[in-house]
Amino acid sequence: MMAPTPAAFAAGSVASDGDAARFLLFQADLPRHVEVGVDHLHELHSWKENPGVRDRWFCYLLECADGTFYAGISNALDRRLAMHSQGVASKYTRTRLPVKLVYLEPQRDRASASRRELQIKKMSRARKRALTH
Q1: In this structure, are residues 77 and 58 in contact, taking their beta carbons and an 8 Å threshold?
Q2: Rounded to an integer, what distance in angstroms lies between the CA atom of residue 12 and that of residue 7?
Q3: pLDDT for 55-77, tens place per residue?
Q4: How far apart are CA 31 and CA 26, in angstroms?
Q5: Mean pLDDT across the chain
Q6: How many CA atoms lie within 13 A of 5 on its CB side?
Q7: What is the DSSP string of the chain?
Q8: Which of 106, 101, 126 is nearest to 5 (CA)?
Q9: Which pTM was predicted?
Q10: 76-100 burial string, b = 16+ CB within 10 Å, else e?
Q11: CA nearest 34: which of 89, 73, 75, 74?
């Protein structure tokens, strides 16, 4: 089964809690310190190119240079990843550059994104690693 496109998410035609939606990642114009850890990413998700994506929230997982994980949420992922790259997004990732986006999960609203972020943060390192494979 082919993964849904970002436009399908923006239009709300794909449920955010389905298996296909859970593992969908987007290709982005990432800053030099942010690498994408999955080869099959596609299409821009920038809110400038696709305003409907701005209404979507994402829970993401970064792998830092020291091998640790950082979980966060955003409704403007390209901007947030750029901030991580510049060392201004969080104190945790600031000293652990470069970071690599290893997991991205779309959510229907900020509350559900925050709940999922908390679930991921409570996971063991092994479970977080399993999310990325």
Answers
A1: yes
A2: 9
A3: 799 999 999 999 999 999 999 99
A4: 14
A5: 74
A6: 7
A7: -PPPPHHHHHHT-S-TTSHHHHT--B-----TTEEE--TT-BS---TTT-GGGGG-EEEEEEE-TTS-EEEEEESSHHHHHHHHHHT-S-HHHHTS-SEEEEEEEEESSHHHHHHHHHHHHHS-HHHHHHHT-
A8: 106
A9: 0.63
A10: bbbebbbbbbeeebeeebeebbbbb
A11: 89
Write out the two tokens for 97.
């550059």
Radius of gyration of the chain (CA): 14
Report which residue type is found at 121: K
SS (H, E, C) 13-29: CCCCCCHHHHCCCECCC
Identity of residue 72: G
Give me 83's structure tokens: 């901030």
Q: Are residues 27 and 42 in contact, defined by beta-carbon separation less than 8 angstroms?
A: yes
CATH class of domain segment(s) 22-131: alpha beta
74 touches 83 (CB < 8 A): no
